[in-house]
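To the team - flavin-adenine dinucleotide complex, inputs and output below.
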Amino acid sequence: MDLTLSPSETEFRDEFRVWLEANQPGPEPAGEDAAFVFRRDWQRLLNASGWAGVAWPKEYGGRGATLIEQAIFYEELARAGAPSMANVLALAMGGPTLIAHGTEEQKQRYLSPILSAQEIWCQGFSEPDSGSDLASLKTRAVRDGDEWVVTGQKVWTTFAHHAKWCMLVARTDQDAPKHKGLTYFLMDMEQEAVQVRPLHQITGEAEFNELFINEARIPHENIVGGEGNGWAVAITTLMHERFTLAFGLQLQVQIAVRELTEKARTTRGATGQTAIEDPVIRQRLSQLMIEAEVLRLNSYRGLTAVMRHGVPGPEGSLGKWHWSEVAQSLAALAMDISGPHAQLVEDEWTYRFLRSHANSIEGGTTEILKNIVAERVLGLPRMR
Ligand SMILES: Cc1cc2nc3c(=O)[nH]c(=O)nc-3n(C[C@H](O)[C@H](O)[C@H](O)COP(=O)(O)OP(=O)(O)OC[C@H]3O[C@@H](n4cnc5c(N)ncnc54)[C@H](O)[C@@H]3O)c2cc1C
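Output:
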């Protein structure tokens, strides 16, 4: 891939840079609820100027930008240290899935409120006994006239407490082979039959939830991609999740490496030396800088695959796996630099260290991603 910007790409970058300078959102407030409101307002501000769905088609409220321009957009956000947007699951996964598999009516109905953050989305895939082996899920949907009646339990459902819509995969055919009997629904979260209970993480926050679904009603027209086709639609969602994670998060790593270098320059140990004067710390930092650059270049490789084939490929799994290792090593190094101060939960890096434990689980565990890379990228024999 040629990484030199064309004149029109340079113009695009400069236009967004000027916009960002004029619309600085300021620092994000502490606390999950306050941060959510802040990110929602930030998304609305971006959307009001047509910057929320940069690569989405213009007819659905997007800017119709190329994928390279979208990459430039993310790089500029990272350069400015801007916060992420509130409706992140819908922007990165739900919207692109609807654009690929939805009917025209669904696109007209759902895409615009995603961009404006009027309707927040969550992802109801994982269940207590079905995470990595998603196709074994047990939540069942039974047809009743023009509606489906859904009963089951979902878990680890991020932002379910803010969500209006849930991307829900349920079993609609009990007799079909496990990958074939699934259907992908958009479930309205605002009904009595859906109970959301928060789950507290090691950070103390309740970012995700359990969903108890007891005869929830979903209109037939809310099926995405056709009855019994849920596995293919869910794979589209997961591919977009990993591709976008790999691309967006490598940018966060670049920022974190810069911040950690600054921390190493300014943190003094018991001897009065700054951390950066310690050769072992310097070596670990340099290694992480190299890895951050490898992540960046691999994310462009993933972008090339999308430009060639129209959809993200299994390479996104490599980026997500590598990112989780780099993010966890960065946070661990920050703890060593902080020394005893790391024991104070008020320290931003202590929060990041605790949160980083989830990085190798969320969006697919590292073991599963290694299996995908082995089988689908390297072409090694299948495990089973
Ligand atoms: C912060 C966070 C947010 C999340 N948000 C959401 C969300 O919004 N929506 C949603 O649906 N889910 C969400 N998840 C769930 C996530 O997708 C699952 O946790 C993940 O897929 C793993 O499933 P599991 O927890 O059931 O673990 P399991 O699948 O039970 O795995 C347990 C262990 O066994 C290993 N293992 C399993 N199968 C294999 C195999 N074939 N080969 C080798 N090793 C294997 C795994 O790697 C893991 O170490 C979230 C998780 C986290 C941590």
